[in-house]
């Protein structure tokens, strides 16, 4: 029997009410108790990324844990973060400091030893010297803000520990004693202090303890599924390695209190009801206020862009409004004469860079999958770029994490390279003398005579620094974004209680099927990759390329012609669907990102080695920047001869990656379709 028209046109308010009735879940406090850890927590502070399926730990790492702390505070006390004060303190004032430092920086001439230093002489160099007063004031301001953030997070942790003590008092049948509570907090004062240090060596373990909670712990240590640890995968082991690699004492290293924030968020999720947790980050809008409208559009196959825009959440609308506002400001800035380095021509390049990402997003989402993933979710998943424009989250979700981890890995690689170079120099007296007399000639000889070593380091740079880090960051950026669209339990909620039980059993396949959810996962991961690639393209176009319109457009065209980031994200989605939809437990993080790392790393390695051999060829042909440089025609011929094979190889890799994805995706679609048919036949029978 088809749903009636009256049920299909149920007002939003009634649909929200029905939604809330259906998703009611028993309180988490009724779950079985487990052993406790230092401070009364039910999970260890060392358990970050222990469960590879947890989104909580990902959110604790993003944006220095600010968003996760805000959510914890809101769930505990209903307190919303002071938005305008935060924008002023964390964005406006720092940007004013940075602008003042740049404006008052002066160029001071620096003369090399042995040179005359005359006007226009080769020996005269300049060094930018910032104003020390403003610079030290900026450092002091950052220190004050860091201390304030630490104190605020300490207060939140104190609140959580107080809740835990109250819970223990109720479950043990004792009356809450304020004096004992204060003694309990004083006993853990050191833990409270060091849990949220900007960079600290936390305790190596925090096993459950026996003090005034002996009885509680002895009851909690009884067997049960809650004491079972989830299977560890590549994510868990890799995080353990990163956290302990620098500390011979075996202690747990954390940055910006990420481990403590993740522990607190896990505890808050345990203390609150599930429907309370189903809210957006930043705005704290419940899913029940906007998700029924998204379901209504999906069930009725409404294609109007305006209707889809109206069904977005408050967070997505803020993103879109702020993006539009920032673009308008950039256009006005480009049309003015404030900065001659950013003109309307540069603004056109910016719009072309955005347009390339938006066009691919249009094809992937709106053209083919608008009902598999909502426009609201796309706005959030593309947020690794969009949110950067509205100064809310953005670059802090993907690009800064990639930059931070790439700096760590590249620094380790650089240290190893310096050690190897020192061994080579010490074993060759001629190179030692050349290094002392002519460093430029020394560098050329090292590159020309030890090319194999440089090829090895390019391999490390391509696969470890670039591919591994960036693919992991894109995966975690996908995990960080929490949306009801990919929650099978919420997608199955009927829009109206007027639907009969027989009709409810035959919920629209478009809304409930694994095939539809799989397509939504792919669109979500590609959206994250497009946001990340858009940021990266802007950096390559305006920072890494020579400052000319021709160079900027050529770099943009080349990078647009090789969409490696969205392709690798689509390949990752195959593994995510195998794990989350097909139930293949063999697919942890390592198996999910391995094919993407192989494609991404090989692509980067080919381009890097081509650039290296071009540099070696320039040295051999005399095309390097010295007095023996060859003619421009000869340089151009060398560039074309070296770059063309690399570009062809890159194109072949992209084509092979597309073929791999198409084959795997079609096979997975057939498997998911078979699973949907099996479930549907079970319902009918």
TrEMBL record:
Pfam families: PrsW-protease (PF13367). It comes from the Eukaryota. Keywords: Membrane, Transmembrane, Transmembrane helix. The chain crosses the membrane at residues 87-106, 133-151, 319-335, 347-364, 401-425, 450-469, 520-544, 556-577, 589-613, 644-663. This is Uncharacterized protein. It comes from Discostella pseudostelligera.
